[in-house]
Amino acid sequence: MRVSQATGAAIGQAIKGTAQQATKLYAEIETRKSENEVLEKTKELYEGNDNFEGLSMVVEKASMMDDPDEAIKYYNNGFEAAKNSVGLNFNHRFSKKIFDQFLSKQQLKDGLAVRQKTNANFIAKSQTLDLEKLEKLKKITKKNLGPTYGFARQYTKYSTMPEHIDRPSCEYSATLFVGSCERHKWPIKMKGKDYILEPGSALLYKGCDWKHSRDEFLGDWHLQIFLHWVDMNGPNAEFLFDKRKCLGEGNRGERKNV
Protein backbone atom coordinates (compact mmCIF):
# COMPACT_ATOMS: atom_id res chain seq x y z
CA MET A 1 0.00 0.00 0.00
CA ARG A 2 1.35 3.31 -1.03
CA VAL A 3 0.86 6.54 0.99
CA SER A 4 1.26 10.00 -0.30
CA GLN A 5 4.06 12.26 0.81
CA ALA A 6 1.58 14.47 2.65
CA THR A 7 0.09 11.49 4.48
CA GLY A 8 3.55 10.26 5.44
CA ALA A 9 4.47 13.68 6.77
CA ALA A 10 1.26 13.79 8.82
CA ILE A 11 1.97 10.35 10.28
CA GLY A 12 5.51 11.44 11.10
CA GLN A 13 4.29 14.58 12.87
CA ALA A 14 1.77 12.53 14.83
CA ILE A 15 4.45 10.09 15.95
CA LYS A 16 6.75 12.96 16.85
CA GLY A 17 3.99 14.69 18.79
CA THR A 18 3.17 11.49 20.65
CA ALA A 19 6.84 11.02 21.54
CA GLN A 20 7.11 14.60 22.79
CA GLN A 21 3.99 14.20 24.90
CA ALA A 22 5.31 10.93 26.31
CA THR A 23 8.66 12.59 27.14
CA LYS A 24 6.90 15.50 28.80
CA LEU A 25 4.66 13.16 30.77
CA TYR A 26 7.69 11.12 31.87
CA ALA A 27 9.49 14.29 32.98
CA GLU A 28 6.44 15.43 34.97
CA ILE A 29 6.09 12.05 36.68
CA GLU A 30 9.81 11.88 37.45
CA THR A 31 9.75 15.45 38.79
CA ARG A 32 6.91 14.62 41.19
CA LYS A 33 8.63 11.44 42.31
CA SER A 34 11.91 13.33 42.72
CA GLU A 35 10.26 16.08 44.76
CA ASN A 36 8.65 13.51 47.06
CA GLU A 37 11.97 11.73 47.48
CA VAL A 38 13.72 15.03 48.30
CA LEU A 39 10.95 15.88 50.76
CA GLU A 40 11.71 12.70 52.70
CA LYS A 41 15.43 13.50 52.64
CA THR A 42 14.92 17.05 53.91
CA LYS A 43 12.63 15.81 56.70
CA GLU A 44 15.36 13.42 57.84
CA LEU A 45 17.95 16.19 57.46
CA TYR A 46 15.99 18.49 59.78
CA GLU A 47 14.95 15.95 62.38
CA GLY A 48 18.10 13.84 62.57
CA ASN A 49 18.26 10.41 64.21
CA ASP A 50 20.35 8.42 66.67
CA ASN A 51 23.38 8.70 64.39
CA PHE A 52 23.45 12.45 63.70
CA GLU A 53 22.07 15.74 64.97
CA GLY A 54 19.27 17.23 62.88
CA LEU A 55 19.79 20.54 61.15
CA SER A 56 17.09 22.27 63.21
CA MET A 57 18.97 21.44 66.42
CA VAL A 58 22.28 22.49 64.86
CA VAL A 59 20.83 25.90 64.01
CA GLU A 60 19.33 26.27 67.49
CA LYS A 61 22.60 25.46 69.26
CA ALA A 62 24.68 27.63 66.94
CA SER A 63 22.29 30.56 67.46
CA MET A 64 22.86 30.43 71.23
CA MET A 65 26.58 31.18 70.88
CA ASP A 66 28.06 34.65 71.33
CA ASP A 67 30.98 34.21 68.94
CA PRO A 68 29.65 34.58 65.34
CA ASP A 69 32.66 32.92 63.71
CA GLU A 70 32.59 29.90 66.04
CA ALA A 71 28.82 29.62 65.55
CA ILE A 72 29.15 29.53 61.76
CA LYS A 73 31.92 26.94 62.06
CA TYR A 74 29.71 24.81 64.33
CA TYR A 75 26.78 25.12 61.92
CA ASN A 76 28.86 24.24 58.84
CA ASN A 77 30.28 21.14 60.56
CA GLY A 78 26.79 20.06 61.61
CA PHE A 79 25.46 20.76 58.12
CA GLU A 80 28.11 18.56 56.50
CA ALA A 81 27.54 15.77 59.03
CA ALA A 82 23.77 15.83 58.47
CA LYS A 83 24.14 15.97 54.67
CA ASN A 84 26.52 13.02 54.61
CA SER A 85 24.38 11.02 57.04
CA VAL A 86 21.18 11.21 54.98
CA GLY A 87 23.16 10.09 51.95
CA LEU A 88 23.34 11.45 48.44
CA ASN A 89 22.05 8.39 46.58
CA PHE A 90 18.66 8.84 44.89
CA ASN A 91 16.24 6.63 43.00
CA HIS A 92 14.74 9.22 40.68
CA ARG A 93 16.18 11.25 37.84
CA PHE A 94 15.88 14.81 39.17
CA SER A 95 16.24 14.16 42.90
CA LYS A 96 19.94 15.00 43.23
CA LYS A 97 19.63 18.28 41.33
CA ILE A 98 16.62 19.38 43.41
CA PHE A 99 18.31 18.32 46.65
CA ASP A 100 21.55 20.14 45.80
CA GLN A 101 19.60 23.32 45.04
CA PHE A 102 17.77 22.99 48.35
CA LEU A 103 21.02 22.47 50.27
CA SER A 104 22.65 25.57 48.77
CA LYS A 105 19.68 27.80 49.59
CA GLN A 106 19.22 26.33 53.06
CA GLN A 107 22.87 26.71 54.02
CA LEU A 108 22.82 30.35 52.96
CA LYS A 109 19.53 31.02 54.79
CA ASP A 110 20.65 29.29 57.99
CA GLY A 111 24.05 30.97 57.88
CA LEU A 112 22.49 34.43 57.72
CA ALA A 113 20.09 33.60 60.57
CA VAL A 114 22.86 32.19 62.77
CA ARG A 115 25.14 35.16 62.16
CA GLN A 116 22.33 37.64 62.88
CA LYS A 117 21.43 35.98 66.18
CA THR A 118 25.01 35.45 67.33
CA ASN A 119 25.88 39.05 66.44
CA ALA A 120 23.04 40.10 68.75
CA ASN A 121 24.40 37.78 71.47
CA PHE A 122 27.86 39.25 70.99
CA ILE A 123 26.49 42.77 71.34
CA ALA A 124 24.66 41.86 74.55
CA LYS A 125 27.87 40.39 75.95
CA SER A 126 29.81 43.46 74.87
CA GLN A 127 27.25 45.73 76.51
CA THR A 128 27.70 43.82 79.77
CA LEU A 129 31.43 44.38 79.50
CA ASP A 130 30.66 48.02 78.72
CA LEU A 131 28.86 48.41 82.06
CA GLU A 132 31.69 46.63 83.87
CA LYS A 133 34.27 48.95 82.31
CA LEU A 134 32.20 52.10 82.78
CA GLU A 135 34.20 53.25 85.80
CA LYS A 136 37.43 52.98 83.81
CA LEU A 137 35.90 55.01 80.99
CA LYS A 138 34.82 57.65 83.48
CA LYS A 139 38.42 58.00 84.61
CA ILE A 140 39.70 58.22 81.02
CA THR A 141 37.20 60.87 79.98
CA LYS A 142 36.95 62.52 83.41
CA LYS A 143 33.19 62.54 82.90
CA ASN A 144 30.26 60.92 84.68
CA LEU A 145 29.24 58.72 81.74
CA GLY A 146 25.90 57.01 81.29
CA PRO A 147 25.23 54.40 78.54
CA THR A 148 22.79 55.21 75.74
CA TYR A 149 22.84 52.36 73.21
CA GLY A 150 25.04 50.11 71.12
CA PHE A 151 24.74 48.21 67.87
CA ALA A 152 26.68 46.07 65.44
CA ARG A 153 26.95 46.65 61.72
CA GLN A 154 28.38 44.40 59.04
CA TYR A 155 29.64 46.35 56.04
CA THR A 156 29.92 44.79 52.61
CA LYS A 157 31.93 45.58 49.49
CA TYR A 158 31.76 49.19 48.31
CA SER A 159 30.29 50.42 51.60
CA THR A 160 31.21 53.99 52.52
CA MET A 161 30.75 56.21 55.55
CA PRO A 162 30.42 59.88 54.55
CA GLU A 163 31.93 62.46 56.86
CA HIS A 164 29.52 63.31 59.67
CA ILE A 165 29.04 64.00 63.35
CA ASP A 166 26.70 61.95 65.52
CA ARG A 167 23.46 62.77 67.30
CA PRO A 168 23.32 63.75 71.02
CA SER A 169 23.09 60.13 72.26
CA CYS A 170 26.61 59.58 70.89
CA GLU A 171 28.38 62.29 72.88
CA TYR A 172 31.14 59.81 73.75
CA SER A 173 31.52 56.84 71.40
CA ALA A 174 33.65 53.75 70.92
CA THR A 175 33.98 51.87 67.64
CA LEU A 176 35.17 48.29 68.19
CA PHE A 177 36.65 46.32 65.31
CA VAL A 178 35.43 42.70 65.51
CA GLY A 179 36.82 41.24 62.29
CA SER A 180 37.05 41.45 58.51
CA CYS A 181 37.70 39.27 55.49
CA GLU A 182 41.41 38.67 55.16
CA ARG A 183 41.88 41.42 57.76
CA HIS A 184 41.33 44.03 55.08
CA LYS A 185 42.49 47.44 56.31
CA TRP A 186 39.69 50.02 56.45
CA PRO A 187 40.75 53.04 58.51
CA ILE A 188 38.36 55.47 60.14
CA LYS A 189 39.28 59.07 59.38
CA MET A 190 39.08 61.61 62.17
CA LYS A 191 40.68 65.00 62.89
CA GLY A 192 42.99 64.68 59.88
CA LYS A 193 44.27 61.22 60.81
CA ASP A 194 43.65 57.65 59.64
CA TYR A 195 43.10 55.18 62.49
CA ILE A 196 43.62 51.52 61.64
CA LEU A 197 42.27 49.14 64.29
CA GLU A 198 43.26 45.54 64.89
CA PRO A 199 40.59 42.91 65.69
CA GLY A 200 39.48 43.36 69.29
CA SER A 201 40.71 46.94 69.57
CA ALA A 202 38.54 50.04 69.87
CA LEU A 203 38.76 53.79 69.36
CA LEU A 204 37.13 56.17 71.85
CA TYR A 205 36.08 59.57 70.48
CA LYS A 206 33.64 62.47 70.89
CA GLY A 207 31.02 61.56 68.32
CA CYS A 208 29.08 64.83 68.46
CA ASP A 209 32.15 67.04 68.07
CA TRP A 210 34.63 65.20 65.88
CA LYS A 211 33.77 64.63 62.22
CA HIS A 212 34.56 61.08 61.11
CA SER A 213 34.32 59.06 57.90
CA ARG A 214 35.57 56.04 55.97
CA ASP A 215 36.48 55.68 52.29
CA GLU A 216 34.97 53.01 50.05
CA PHE A 217 35.47 49.51 51.45
CA LEU A 218 36.99 47.04 48.97
CA GLY A 219 36.80 43.83 51.00
CA ASP A 220 33.87 41.41 51.20
CA TRP A 221 32.77 42.04 54.80
CA HIS A 222 33.77 44.09 57.84
CA LEU A 223 32.11 43.93 61.28
CA GLN A 224 32.10 46.80 63.78
CA ILE A 225 30.40 47.28 67.15
CA PHE A 226 29.46 50.78 68.28
CA LEU A 227 28.92 51.78 71.93
CA HIS A 228 27.73 55.21 73.03
CA TRP A 229 27.51 57.26 76.23
CA VAL A 230 26.56 60.74 77.42
CA ASP A 231 27.91 62.96 80.19
CA MET A 232 25.34 62.70 82.97
CA ASN A 233 26.37 66.15 84.19
CA GLY A 234 26.09 67.70 80.72
CA PRO A 235 23.37 68.95 78.36
CA ASN A 236 22.74 65.49 76.86
CA ALA A 237 21.98 63.66 80.12
CA GLU A 238 18.36 63.22 79.02
CA PHE A 239 19.57 60.73 76.40
CA LEU A 240 20.51 58.11 79.03
CA PHE A 241 19.52 54.70 77.56
CA ASP A 242 18.68 56.71 74.40
CA LYS A 243 15.50 57.89 76.18
CA ARG A 244 14.34 54.32 76.78
CA LYS A 245 13.47 52.72 80.10
CA CYS A 246 16.53 50.50 80.02
CA LEU A 247 19.21 49.05 77.77
CA GLY A 248 17.93 46.40 75.39
CA GLU A 249 14.50 47.94 74.85
CA GLY A 250 13.54 48.45 71.20
CA ASN A 251 15.32 48.23 67.84
CA ARG A 252 16.39 50.71 65.21
CA GLY A 253 15.66 49.42 61.72
CA GLU A 254 18.06 46.69 60.68
CA ARG A 255 20.44 47.34 63.55
CA LYS A 256 20.28 45.33 66.72
CA ASN A 257 20.40 47.79 69.60
CA VAL A 258 21.20 47.15 73.24
Can you describe this structure?
By secondary structure, this protein is α+β, with helices and mostly antiparallel strands. The protein folds into 2 domains: 5-122, no CATH class; 133-257, Jelly Rolls. Helix content is 45%, strand content 21%. The protein has helices at 5-47, 55-63, 68-86, 95-132, 134-141; strands at residues 48-49, 52-53, 145-156, 161-164, 172-180, 188-190, 193-195, 202-205, 212-214, 221-231, 256-257. The strands form 3 sheets. A 5-stranded antiparallel sheet has the order 8-5-10-3-11. The termini are far apart.
Tag the structure with descriptive keywords.
11 strands; 21% strand; four-stranded antiparallel sheet; single chain; 45% helix; Jelly Rolls; alpha+beta; 258 residues; five-stranded antiparallel sheet
Summarize, please.
By secondary structure, the chain is an alpha+beta fold. The chain has five helices and eleven strands.
- CATH architect. name of the largest domain: Sandwich
- The computed structural class is alpha+beta
Measured as a percent range, the helix fraction is 40-55%
Most strands sheet: 5 strands, antiparallel
Radius of gyration: 29 Å
The number of helices is 5
What average pLDDT do the residues reach?
A: 83
What's the CATH C level of the largest domain?
Answer: Mainly Beta
Tell how many strands the DSSP assignment holds. Answer: 11
Distance linking N and C termini:
90 Å
Please name the fourth-level CATH homologous superfamily of the largest domain. Jelly Rolls
Task: Please render the helix and strand layout as text.
Elements: H1 5-47, E1 48-49, E2 52-53, H2 55-63, H3 68-86, H4 95-132, H5 134-141, E3 145-156, E4 161-164, E5 172-180, E6 188-190, E7 193-195, E8 202-205, E9 212-214, E10 221-231, E11 256-257
Antiparallel strand pairs: 1-2, 3-10, 3-11, 4-9, 5-8, 5-10, 6-7, 6-9
Helix pairs in contact: 1-3, 1-4, 2-3, 2-4, 3-4
